[in-house]
Amino acid sequence: MTETKGKFDFAIDRGGTFTDVFARLPDGRERVLKLLSWDPQNYKDAPTEGIRRVLEEETGKVFPRDKPVDTSLIGWIRMGTTVATNALLEREGERTALLVTKGFKDLLHIGTQARPKLFDLEVSMPEVLYEEVIEVDERIVLRQDSCQLPRKDPKRSTGDSLEVWRELDLERVEKDLRGVLSRGITSLAVLLLHSYTWSEHEKAVGSLARRLGFTQVSLSSEVMPMVRAVPRGYTVCADAYLTPKIRQYLKGFTSGFKGGLKDVDVLFMQSDGGLTPMEQFCGSRAILSGPAGGVVGYAITSYSEMEKKPVIGFDMGGTSTDVSRYAGQYEHVFEATTAGVTLQAPQLDINTVAAGGGSRLFFRSAGHRFDTCTLARGGPLTVTDANLALGRLLPSFFPKIFGPGENEPLSLEETMKHFHRLTQEINHFFTVPGSKSEMSVEEVAIGFIRVANEAMCRPIRALTQAKGHDTSQHVLACFGGAGGQHACAIARALGMKTVFIHKYSGVLSAYGLALADVVEEVQEPCSLQYEQRSFSQLNHRVDLLTQRCCDTLRARGFTRSITTEVFFHLRYEGTDCALMVSASGYPGNAQSCRAGDFRSAFTKRYLKEFGFTIPDRAIMVDDIRVRGSGKSGIQSACKPNLKHGHAKPVTMTRCYFEDGYLDTSVYLWEELPHGHVVQGPAIIIDKNSTILVEPCCEARLTEGGDVCIAVGSDPHCALGTELNTVQLSIFSHRFMSIAEQMGRVLQRTSISTNIKERLDFSCAVFGPDGGLVSNAPHIPVHLGAMQETVQYQIRSLGNNLKEGDVILSNHPCAGGSHLPDLTVITPVFRKGVSSPVFFVASRGHHADIGGITPGSMPPHSTSLQQEGAVFTSFKLVTGGVFQEEAVTEALMAPAQYPDCSGTRNLHDNLSDLRAQVAANQRGSQLVEELIDSYGLAVVQAYMGYIQSNAELAVRDMLKAFAHRRRQQTGSLEVESEDFMDDGTPIRLRVQINEEEGSAVFDFTGTGTEVWGNCNAPRAITLSALIYCLRCMVGQDIPLNQGCLAPIKVIIPPGSILQPSHNAAVVGGNVLTSQRVVDVIFRAFDVCAASQGCMNNISFGSVKSGYYETVAGGAGAGPGWNGRSGVHSHMTNTRITDPEILEKRYPVILEQFSLRPSSGGAGKYNGGDGVIRKLLFREKVVLSVLTERRSTRPYGLMGNLSPFYLTHKNPLGPCGCKGLYTPGGGGYGQEDEANKRPQTKRRRLNETFPERGSVFEYRMAQEGV
Fold first, then answer.
1. Is 756 found in the same domain as 888?
2. Where would I find the Hydantoinase/oxoprolinase N-terminal domain in this sequence (predicted)?
3. Quick one: DSSP state of residue 127?
4. What pLDDT does 954 receive?
């Protein structure tokens, strides 16, 4: 396929607001055009209208709008579209039914069982895409040699050996499918367990469904044949739901052209950055169709093969910003969430953050929030308004698209009027006698800009540092309508020296479509070890897949211009961290397969991303993928800019910067000659974008007409210790960023599954008094506990803390939660200061530290020594030397106790402890850099202001509650009580001081310490309390020491909430913590009780062990029903996918579904619990830690949740364990249910705006 000659070629990006058109004309000239995507008064379809306009204007012929466009002059059309994304966001896809293996009808409702927002008591999750479910009585299982159950005849597939336990009953399926068709549903998604490796049952169902008349049949084995049923199920549902809508759009689009575009080559951009023919364009591969063009555009135009300097793509649009990275190869992810739906398909790693030119501005301090709406435009003040107020946007150069008729200019007068109002409100709020002068409008506006910039910097840091890259060693490629105004500031904040802005930056997604390749991908699962004896099989399968790719591309008109690239999805045996690896640059040899030396490629990349390798561990091939590309022949032409001479500004204006108003030159981009240098401050304007060249920056026009900006260092701006509201927000971001970067180092350098893959850790920064400053991410049970640990070490060690020391602690009396959570604390010293100026700490869950059972989580422990190794104030590092011998001795010490063992995995313990030390070292460096920039006094002052901000929010919440309580009852005291299943009471009395906004939480009357392990250390109660306070505040406040400042906590010594030093505590961490939350919420009448349990299940043998927690029902509240099948409160753990569970452990998951009617009834119903049935294939030891089996979750003014005991079966071969988890309590009287208020339907991107690998990482860690 080559360039068409003598014809018009079009590349079109149809976005949500604007449609961008790039056209290459027959004479080689290029045109760009931007028009509204939705303008029904003038045209039916924006891409068709864009093509019509270009043809009419360039040929001089009339192309009537009301007639199909003549295609004789059109060579090709390439498009990216948000049609699929919008249908997903609006939930306006095709009516769909799901056909799934029996026992799993609710699998996609439960999903990972984690909730998306940790502190939202109303668990808001997107509904499933299907309307009906058909359960199919069929079952495929993976064959296991050690299985002691009756065997079936084996079947071979892609490296796996399988057994058909139940054959497919097609007669029953046909009856069910006819019923679905009779109800008007014609789209079907099929998800059968293990179909990724054996697809015969799915294919039989698909053939039957098509024969019956289903117009869309999507099979999970065809859409994405990868292991893990839940994301594959979401993907196949999205495909069935969205593909008919895409076809509907394509039908309308083609109808606007003569012959329906039959003789025109029409290609669509897929999420992976490759083009595909129109007839192959499907829902599961279309979600990133629009943004992918931009990534291709900046990758080809900004990256230099000579310099090989990596590039960060920065696409700032109206309501969000897309961030991505390119370093010679496109970075793909194979599982990402969009609009709450996780898709398992190759996608460019585009990270979307909810900050753009149209992002709303508001001021919020503690419980106060101020919004200002610009009524003339019908919307709120935005980031764009802030730039306008600062003089950085010039209305005379801006398009007239505002006002009711969308034909008015940008109104500076309206913007300034409402900024004055907002400034007055801010100044009024902060008016304190003796304080500094009030803020000006300009100071408020530039403050909002700086906060927005810092919010956009955080994901860029995370994206680069997550894979071991230095953020500052990148070029910032800026595109999108709003990005040019922020590029210099973003680059400077990240330490970047260069900003590149392409001449088509305003329409770069469309231009990228013209540059993209046609791509065909094929993939299949594999279960082979990467070793010599497997190479012949791997070579054969690679050859077959490569041939399929090439045959498909040849059928599309490509001949010699085809290239292929082979990828292996590799992981170390026994781990879940798989990397999709190309052997590019690693040619094959005698010790590798023919496609390349994948072992070397994998180990080098693993070392780069994680800091180590595992040389003695086998490497497994999970999938084989071949990506074939048909080179389009379209090149990024660098046409010389022939203009010479010296450009003069078209006007001068005054813009506001950190140093106040400065004279600013204004240039038109099209008038700048090649090589011309523009000194900042300056503004460069073209039809589609505005570029701000800030002071100390220098812009140069390249030979191709692009803008390259050299970013100078920011002149030091002295900052005092007096509170500045803008700096308060920025420091909050900076402290949180330090904790986040510590977490990235820990995740990269750790070795255990718990820390590296399950992300069961927290990192935090603390002040000189040990008070928490910032904690990221938010694992509920760690929230208040780490502060207790740091403060214990300050009291215990005092002046014995020296520079170069690192402390290890896990004892409950020293702020520990349970023993496997090892906390590593590093004091940060400053030259000239004798005591630590800050502390940094990391807490990680170690898989084993000894004790009476593997995993150190015994269900029957009665003393602390039975739960593993104990550390109180252990110096892990002394004078910079890691104390390996001493810590090894301590980890093996539990073996001295009866029936106990020392740690069973010393190598992982030591590796993870070193990783925690490294994470703390990184945190210490970042704290010192912050102090170098601002000075110790300023940094510590703002630490205090951040803590005060959280304190004020809690005080305001308590004042508001006290006011309501006094009006309703005349009392400022509340109390509540609940019971553990053994009858132990947990009692709470809260006395509130309305004037101060303070409270005393008194747990006097709580039951005594118990003989078992449900004792909860004091730190657990504080964690539960800070979690409840954050939920009740109801806004995003920093979680730090300030939250507990207004609170006095009284816990009787010797009680279950403050047990003796040697009491067993493992159950207190996972069970009693939930009851404490229930008691607090009951006292404040917040919501009904949730399931109140984590349902801890572990089983194992001498060969392996497994641990999981299981979801239940969430409690209802005022205005919402409780969510079914979800984790609540102090846990948010993701559950292992059914296919992974059965692949790696001797167990069959027979059922995982909701437990109907188990939630409490009321005006608002409690969520239902779940049923989870496990069939064991060999003899195992099973441990169960559960609660709420004899004491039901309470309702508020409604009925209680029913409950069930767990089944108790023998657990030899054929042993079956059935777990029935509690539902949540109901809220309100049931007889009021006939007039339930309707929930307002929201566009899902208002609730789930973010996406990408950075977002997935945070969600995964909050799911621990």
1. yes
2. 10-212
3. P
4. 93
Residue 561 domain boundaries: 519-630
Kindly tell me the burial class for residue 737, based on how many C-beta atoms sit within 10 Å of its own C-beta (0-12, 13-18, 19 or more): buried
pLDDT of residue 425: 82
Q: Is the domain of 625 the same as that of 735?
A: no
If DSSP codes are grouped into helix, strand and coil, which group holds residue 24? strand
User: What is the distance between the alpha carbons of residues 741 and 761, in angstroms, rounded to a whole number?
Assistant: 13
- Helix or strand run (H / E) with residue 342: strand 341-343
Say if 1212 falls within a structural domain.
no
Q: What is the DSSP letter of 1194?
A: P
Evaluate whether 300 touches 512 at the Cβ level (below 8 Å). yes
Phi, psi of 86 (to 5 degrees): -65, -40
d(CA 521, CA 284): 14
Q: Is 1087 exposed, middle or buried (0-12, 13-18, 19+ CB in 10 A)?
A: buried
Is the residue at 143 inside a domain? yes
Side-chain-facing half-sphere of 437: CA atoms under 13 Å:
3
Q: Which distant-in-sequence residues (6+ apart) come within 8 Å of 310 by Cβ?
A: 303, 325, 326, 327, 328, 469, 473, 474, 475
Q: Do 895 and 759 share a structural domain?
A: yes
SS3 803: coil
Both tokens assigned to 927: 């704290």
Give the rounded distance of the alpha carbon of 1178 from its chain centre: 38
854 vs 901: CA distance, rounded Å: 9
Sequence-distant (≥ 6) Cβ neighbours of residue 674 within 8 angstroms: 640, 641, 642, 643, 644, 701, 702, 703, 705
**Same domain assignment for residues 761 and 622:** no
Q: Which of 233, 261, 295 is the last residue of a domain?
A: 233
- Per the structure block, which two tokens stand in for 1156? 């109907």
Whether residue 916 is contained in a domain is answered as yes
DSSP count for the chain of H helices, then E strands: 27, 54
Q: Which residues of the chain have pLDDT under 70?
A: 1-4, 156-159, 318-319, 354-359, 362-379, 399-407, 430-437, 466-468, 611, 633-645, 715-718, 757, 777-779, 1102, 1104, 1197-1215, 1231-1264
Q: Are 804 and 929 within one domain?
A: yes
Coil, strand or helix at 138: coil
If DSSP codes are grouped into helix, strand and coil, which group holds residue 206?
helix
DSSP letter, residue 1054: T
Residue 887 has a pLDDT of 95
Helices of type H across 970-1088? 1018-1033, 1066-1067, 1073-1083
Domain boundary among 951, 972, 1000: 951
Instruction: Specify if 1050 maps to a domain.
Output: no
- In this structure, are 894 and 779 located in the same domain? yes
Between CA 1069 and CA 868 the distance in angstroms is 15
60 CB burial (10 A radius; 0-12, 13-18, 19+)? exposed
Phi and psi dihedrals of 985, rounded to 5?
A: -85, 150
CA distance 602 to 945: 46
730 and 625 fall within a common domain: no
Half-sphere exposure for 321 (CA within 13 Å, toward CB): 30
- Distance, CA of 1252 to CA of 343 (rounded, Å): 11
The per-residue pLDDT for range 944-958, each reduced to its tens digit, is 988 988 899 899 999
- Whether the Cβ atoms of residue 1166 and residue 1224 lie closer than 8 Å to each other: yes
pLDDT of residue 1125: 95
Q: Which of 1007, 1017, 1016, 1009 is nearest to 983 (CA)?
A: 1007
The model's pTM: 0.85
Looking at the structure of the chain, the number of domains it has is 3
Distance of alpha carbon 387 from alpha carbon 664, whole angstroms: 14
C-beta of residue 1021 within 8 angstroms of C-beta of residue 1001: no
The dihedral over CA atoms of 384, 385, 390, 392, expressed in degrees to the nearest 10, equals 30
Q: Give the number of C-alpha atoms closer than 13 A to the C-alpha of residue 961, restricted to the C-beta side.
A: 26
pLDDT tens figures, 90-112 = 888 999 999 999 999 999 999 98
Q: What is the CATH number of the domain that holds 585?
A: 3.30.1490
